[in-house]
Every structure is written in C-alpha cells, then in structure tokens.
Amino acid sequence: MKRALPAFAVLLLLLTGCAPQTGGRIADAVSAATQARYRENEIRDYQGARLDPAVGPRDNSIKGVQAVDTNGYALVVDGLVEAPVALGYGQVLALPAHERLITLHCVEGWDATVLWKGVLLEELIGLAGIKPEAVTVIFSSVDGYTTSLPLKTIREKSLILAYGANGLDLPPALGYPFMVVAEDKLGYKWGRWVDRITLSDDADYKGFWENLGYPNGADVPAGTEGT
C-alpha cells in the first residue's frame, strides 16, 4: 500500500505541476501506455524480473529534458579533493562497469525497476583524491539542478553513476549522459544530466527541492524499497 504524501509534499506537487496524471499508478505492466514507452531493443526481463521502461511516465525536470552533446562535454570532480579532474564521456565509460537492478521511487507515486549500468561513484570521485574533511557529495546538472548525498552513503551502498539503462544508453529523459542511481532514496536525489560532482564538508547542504521543503534524507518509505 502506498503511503500518503506529507502535506508539504502535496502542496509542492500542486504548485509545481508535479502530480500523477491519473490519480493512481500511471501505467501497469500490461498497459498499452507502458508498452509504448519501451525503446527498440530495450531489455524487458532480467534474471526473472520484469523491467520497466527506462523512462518515467512524464517529464518532471525543472527546465525540461536536456539535450547534452558529449562532444566537448566534461564531467568535473572538484571541491575538497587533492586535484580536480575533468573527464570526457569516453573516459568515464572506460572505468570498470557495474550493473545493478534497482527500483527508482518517484515522490509522485510511481516507481520503475530498471537494470542500470555505470561506474562506482566512490571510484570516480577517488580519481581526484578525496580529502578527509569531505562528508557530502553535491551533484550539479546542466539545467542548474542540484542535490546531494552523504559520502558515507555512497561508500556503504556502492552507489553508481549510470550511463546505461536496460541494455541501452540512457535516454535524454533519464539524464544522458549520466544519472545518479541513488538506491533507496526518492527520485529527487537521482540527479540527471550531471556535469559536476563537488566534495563538501557541509553535512546540511540542500539542493533544489530540498531548499523548497523536501526532506534532505529522502529515504524511500519502509515497505516499498523492493517494489
């Protein structure tokens, strides 16, 4: 059973137009709407699990879906590091790859179980040398969106920065070229179109939605993590 959203979340959803369009679960496993969202050659089953289309039912980004040209693109890792680095798209893909079957839970009430492929965030930011005083990892996106996660969480959960979903490259709607796969965190922690990762000593840093009242912890409600 889905838990009711807190009053502040309902208010924010109404103010931003971020609300489910059908009043219930937007698309189930057998609906024509769901089938239509699968891309050609997209994997639909993995080790006995049904995969959802690797795209949400609608766009809820702050400035619309971004089109990122990876020619000339650089992913910057800076802040409390020994030496900032700027990595091209191909350089990130050359790092050891990891695949994870993880469910994204959106605050709107829908979820999607996707086979994600990417690089370990700890390994990626480790290329710049993490200073001991760093406790927070801030993700910035090309559209100006920001969010963050504790460095401890990234390490303990071996979180990844994804570039693939269901056997294909991330679609633009899911944040191509890179999306944070923030396992067990609500969707506003899953930064899309990431182009900067900053190490900080600010344990209370708040990103875009967090500054508007969403909980900084963003934990998925108990009982829904595996759905």
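Above is the first protein from milestone M3; the second protein from the same milestone is given next.
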Amino acid sequence: MKKITFLMLHLNYGGIEKQVTTLANNLVGKYKIEIVSLYDILGESFYELDKRIKVRYIFPCGPNGKKILNALKKFRLKEFFFELSLGIKMLYTKYFKIGKIVDELNTDILVSSRIEFSKQIKRDDIIVVSQEHSYINTNSYKRKVKNSFKKVDYLVVMTQKAKNLYETWLRECVQRPRVILIPNMIDDYNGDGTNLHNNQIIGVGRLEDIKDFTSLINVYSLVEKKHPDWTLKIIGEGSKRKKLEKQIALLGLKEKITLTGRLTSEEIAKELDNSSIFLLTSKSESFSLSIVEAMAHNVPCVSYDIDVGPKEIITNKEDGFLIDDRSQTQMAEVVSTLIEDSVKRVEVGTNARKTAQKFFASNIVLKWQELFDKILD
C-alpha cells in the first residue's frame, strides 16, 4: 500500500486543518496515511481523526510568545530563558529545519500545507504536492512564490482566480509545478438543517482583524433597529474579543449579541440549525468553509464580495447574496429583506443546500484520489 504524508503546522482549529483531516479520514485504507505536525497545541487533533492515521508531532507544544512575556513580567528568569530558548528553536525549525525532517521521511507522496515548508523541500525521489489556501497579489509575494516551489511537482489551489494567478507567476520558472484546482471540502451532511424560523443571525470565524467582525456588528446594529426581535451569535475566538465586547457595549447590544467563543464542530452545526441568516464580512478569504457549511444547513448567506472565495461559491441572488464595496448599509438592507420575506429566505436556503453538495467530501475526495492515482500510476 502506498503512503501519503501530510506536513502540517498544527492540528488546531482552522480551515486547512479541517480540510486535511477530512481528506486524511477519507483516504485512509486506500493509502497509508501519516500526518507530521510541527506543533502539538491541543494534545490531539481538534478534528476527529481515524485511528489508523499515524500522527507525529515535532514539538509537544505550540508557539509560546505569551509564556515568554509572562515569565519576563513576573521576573522568573529561569522560566524566561527556558521558554525563550524553546521559542527560538521552534521558529528556527519552522523556517530552516523542515527540509531535514522531510529528508528522513519514508513516504511516496508528501503533501505540504505551508509555503515556508515547501521552500525547504529538496527531495527528488518522492512526489511533492503543495497546498496553497491563499495568495497575496504583491510583487514581494510573487517573488516568494517563484522561490518556494522549485521542488514541488503539483501545486493545489482552491479557486480559479488563484489558479490563473499562480500559473502566471510560475511561468518564468525553469522547473515549475503543475497547478491543479481542487476546492475545499466539508463533511457530507444529510441532516434536515434549519427550518429558517428562528430569529437568529450567525457569523463564524476567528476574532481577528481579517475577519472584520467590527463591520458585522455594525451591520447587525442597523438591522436590529428595524427588527429588534432578531439576535446575533458570533462563533469563534481570537485576539480582538475585548475590542468587540467594547463595541457591543457601546452600541447597547449586550443582550442581543452573543460571543460564544470556540465551539466544537457538532456545536457549530447545532447553532447553524438554529439560525436563519449567515453573514460574512471578511477582508479576505482563500475559500470560506464557513459559507459552505452554512449553506449545507439551508442557511442563506450574505457576504461581502471580496477578491476570491465567496464569489466562487455563491451565485448572487440565487443561493446567497454578494455585497459590493463592503457596504454595511447594503448588507443590512439585504438582511432585512430576508427577515421580512420568509418565502425568499426558504428559496435561497434550498438553493444554497444544493450548491453546498458540490463541496461535500464524497465529491472533492474523488478529485484528490484522481490526482494521487495519476501520480502513483
């Protein structure tokens, strides 16, 4: 049986982590599956893994910046120097020693999940596949791309726009990877989903600037003036939590908006089943698993029309809505229309569920199997 090794930064909560664990669970048995993760942040994978999958961690912990600062503030010098030394070792490994770790792997196919990992890979005796879940359209990033995939055989991206850009950027490289489009995936979902009768709006994501929950809260504040019986629930955790809590308090919406913190996949699914509208106000998305998962549960999605991601999932006004120019007013108007028109809400939700099925694991895994079978033939 041929072996596939996935090289990961960590197995904590996140889009690429969800995608890789779902893929691994669906491939194990047909192939031997191994996951090599730089960090062990949780002591186990956040997402459930098949017991047949071998997982190896390079470090029994994750980034320790907070521990370093805490030890320094409390003047615990022994602890400070220990954590500082460990932090430097982890960073050095991440950017300079991954290649050595890869050299020692016994595998047929290596799937790298990070551009800084791919740059360090030098092996010619295995097939190397690199996944890129985002892109930055700048000259400096283009140079980084050209320098990072010299030993990569296949580069897998998630959107057509990303595929077009990477093919253009890599055209000048003497040895360039073949760029393959394989969208992200979610687990197959056969539940009933939401009945769209609950007065709950939902948002899901990390509480960081890139997700721009500040805008989402502002949109809800406009909606709430017309529809005070509707509430907002934001699922996720991050460094901007206190900032968002302050914003909610200033708007006088503490009784209407709930920040749940991080929830399990099962808990998120339950919240989607209790929701009737999903909002996304991110500044950037490589794909947006959260949109697909909401659509699978019949939830109509309203998203800013950002560079990539949502526009390659949503057909505007059919199975969701795309908002131009990051307009909070326009988004609030669309949300209000969905609240007031239950027939339209059901129509969009039904179409959304059909769209989401294209991204079910049972369909997307076939594309990966086709790639791996071709490689190993």
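Note on the second protein: The chain is about 45% helix and 15% strand.
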